[in-house]
Amino acid sequence: MKKRIVITGMGVVAPNAVGLADFEDALRKGTSGIRFEEELKHLKFSCQIAGKPQVSEEKIAKYFTPLQLRGLNSSGIVYGVIAGTDAWKDAGLEIQGNESPDWDSGIIFGTGILGVDKFREAINLIDAGKTRRLGSTSVMQTMASGISAYLGGILGCGNQVTTNSSACTTGTEALLMGFERIAAGKAKRMLVGSCSDHGPYIWGGFDAMRILPSKYNANPTEASRPMSTTACGFVPGSGAGALVLEEYESAKARGAKIYAEVLGGAVNSGGQRGGGSMTAANSEAVVRCIKEALRFSEISAEEIDAINGHLTATTKDALEIENWKKALKREDFPYINSLKGMTGHCLAASGSIECVAGVLQMDKNFIFGNVNCEELNPEISELVSEEKIPRKTLKKPINILAKSSFGFGDVNSVVIFKRVMK
Amino acid sequence: MNDKEILDSIKKIVTPYTQRKEGLENFNEETDFIKDLEVNSANLVDVILDVEDEFNIEIDNDSMEGMLTVGDAKNIIERKLASA
CA within 20 to 30 Å of A177's CA: A116, A162, A191, B65, which one? Predict the structure, then answer.
């Protein structure tokens, strides 16, 4: 028999809010986290706006020891540790004392690239012939698995502790990897999530590819326009999201709050064939990924109430909807929304932040409105009736929600969540 | 700079890296960085860098290897200060 796996805790550090309560409020109101960045202007970026979580020094000091704070210069680690620790506490789990780790709890926490500011510090010292001045903190803040290593040490996890990386699907993939580990009976609990650094060294490459909006520097909150006629590129973001996955029996036994059940999902790749490339998705692969997720989750297409899409605010948004349409083969279409209108595209962190947003909707019976989508792209309105793309937040229960993420390298992932009756 | 001033400086530098705080109560030349203070061995290089900054000296790898106790550190610092 298939093991039931549920979500018992969540944490989020998003450009428009930090912490679950503020994030829920921001989702309901459509609060934007996109701001003008003086630094990007100074560096002559075309796109001088971005999504950066607002986290004070005082807040950071609550999550790290004074020793860990010395020379800490890796924003991904800061965001990831806050989100991960919050999720763990939200699940009502204890932080292990010094004697023995929790052998049944593991971590899969992904990232795209970690600690770029720290790495820059190191590069400058090395190039100046001062390698010995790096100190001991350079390696752990710049290794990709630094984030899972920090969290593993803080929480005392003794199961698998690792980091995955698959561009903008990273967070959703991490969730499915954790799900599979519990399903295989190898762990009882997995903290899953992802983080992304902020700053010019993360965003510069995208600016150079000219896929970011350059005409909204004076009105940043309007720049990220998923599904809109005037969508003109994604706004770069950063942050972290985290979820605690747990065996249903274990969650039940300790009386934990259950946010939702993870029914399953799928990951695949288009192989950069059939229209797919390093940067574009092979539509056939996307359709297969959706169908596979449904098949594995043992639900029919008709059962999906809402989709939280990838929908980055490029011309490809319509294609994403078309792929859903092909995969679901329904007369009508589920409600669909994109968080990126409020947060921008948080890159490696996007999947996990958006999973948290999706599950919060299920827990609190609402579907957040799509911001900056006053004029729906006509290619999309041909496929889906306008009411299914809410512009204002709706009060509505969701029984089944599908979440998709797609990434460079032609990689896809889709996860299916189900409400658990209380 | 006298012995006591140097010891006080070392104590201040090593405090954030000290995992066994009791070790700081009886801080003297015999105090062993790893055994008594439980400084993580990876952090010893950070202690050295902080000492270098504090006294404006440079501690080479050979000197560093002999730096097991507070007394060792004090002697190295005094030697470097004298030759500076």
Answer: A116
Q: Is A216 helix (H, G, I), strand (E, B) or coil?
A: coil
CA distance linking residue A160 with residue A162, whole number of Å: 6
Question: For chain B, what is the largest distance between any 2 Cα atoms, rounded to a whole number of angstroms?
Answer: 35
From chain B, the residues in CB contact with A71 under 8 A are 46
Q: Which pair of structure tokens corresponds to residue A298?
A: 């043992």
pLDDT, tens digit, 9 for 90 and up, residues A347-402: 999 999 999 999 999 999 999 999 999 999 999 999 999 999 999 999 999 999 99
CB contacts < 8 A, A to B, total 18
- Full set of structural domains in chain B with CATH: 3-83 (1.10.1200.10)
Please answer yes or no on whether B16 and A136 come within 8 Å at the CB atom: no
Interface with chain B: mutation pick from A67, A69, A134, A137, highest number of B CBs within 10 Å: A67
| SS3 state of residue A337 | strand
Domain A1-422 belongs to what topology?
Peroxisomal Thiolase; Chain A, domain 1 (3.40.47)
Q: Is ipTM beyond 0.90?
A: no
Task: Return the domain boundaries, chain A.
Answer: 1-422
